[in-house]
Amino acid sequence: MYPLLLLPFLLLFPLGCFPVSLPLCRNSCGRIHIDYPFAIDDGCGSPLYRNMFNCSTTFASTSNTSTSTSTATATATATDLFFQTPSGSYKVETIDYASKSLTIYDPSMSTCTILQPHHDFLMSDLQFAIIPPSPDTIFALLNCSLDSPILNHYKSLCFDNYHSCDDLYASCTSFKIFQMLSNNTPPCCFTSYTTLKFMSINILDCTHYTSFYDADKLNKPLDWSYGIKLSYGLADTGCDGCRRSGGTCGFDVETQGLLCICSPTLNSTRECGAGTTDAGGRGGDGKRLVVPFLRLITTIAIATAFALL
Ligand SMILES: *[C@@H]1O[C@H](CO)[C@@H](O)[C@H](O)[C@H]1NC(C)=O
Ligand SMILES: *[C@@H]1O[C@H](CO)[C@@H](O)[C@H](O)[C@H]1NC(C)=O
Ligand SMILES: *[C@@H]1O[C@H](CO)[C@@H](O)[C@H](O)[C@H]1NC(C)=O
Ligand SMILES: *[C@@H]1O[C@H](CO)[C@@H](O)[C@H](O)[C@H]1NC(C)=O
């Protein structure tokens, strides 16, 4: 009877979550460091960016047919952070917390080396408000028709004298085809994300697009950094205090109220009790007393179980 009663306890304790605490908020995804205001676990980071990021691992399935058995094994090939917008999931290439910017890459756009039919890039209104494309992110619309609104009524949306279309088409192996297939150079337009936000590329009547950042007029298309740079602002929400006290900033998933996550068993509204070394605080003291107590109980339980067997 006694061993039976103790059995669940003995089985549960070594696996129990008390002494081994998994972090509630993962701080990396692949090689990308995750920090406030971003997060990949719900309830972490700022509620404004909730559900915008996703850490996903791609698996390559390799089937192995040997003499007698056929086994299919899934091997993880890459773990990447994705930024999700209404038009798709875009791989995050870098996050620079100092300059408050991140760069994402649209796998369906054309670049100097690859020509792909366009697929609109669109952000939600909330995303456009809190994490818009940076002013130095430029969209180049390629092979536009002569009837395109941006060559007529909306001409002003294209940056004047940015690069000539001839120069653009001639600089890149993938864009050379636009000149080869027509007698005269088809129009192009260098513009900002706002243009795409209000008119789809179909309405703009261009067949391809590319986007790049960190480019000035003097840079050649071969040297551009292809992708989209987003910049975010950060209101002071008191996260610094929480962080200094050793906590991680998060929020209550129901009320969206801000939380300072101190330990798996303790959340506080502003900062963690045990801020500096000596103060101790409720969280720390509690743990120090509970752990030895549980160890004692386990030892007694194991001893009793052996005595009875
Ligand atoms: C603390 O907050 C996190 C994030 O909202 C939540 O997942 C966790 O359950 C909370 N823990 C406690 C002890 O309330
Ligand atoms: C996470 O990102 C991947 C990236 O391609 C996407 O396919 C998937 O739907 C996303 N998952 C969630 C839960 O949003
Ligand atoms: C297939 O299995 C054999 C033996 O089990 C192993 O040596 C080989 O590396 C495997 N090949 C792949 C592609 O996994
Ligand atoms: C360029 O656009 C025209 C229509 O305006 C289209 O017929 C042609 O296929 C496009 N060129 C390429 C290389 O896609």
TrEMBL record:
Secretion signal, residue range per the UniProt entry: 1-19
Protein name listed in UniProt: Wall-associated receptor kinase galacturonan-binding domain-containing protein
Keywords on record: Kinase, Receptor, Signal, Transferase
Organism: Cynara cardunculus var. scolymus
A GO molecular-function descriptor: kinase activity
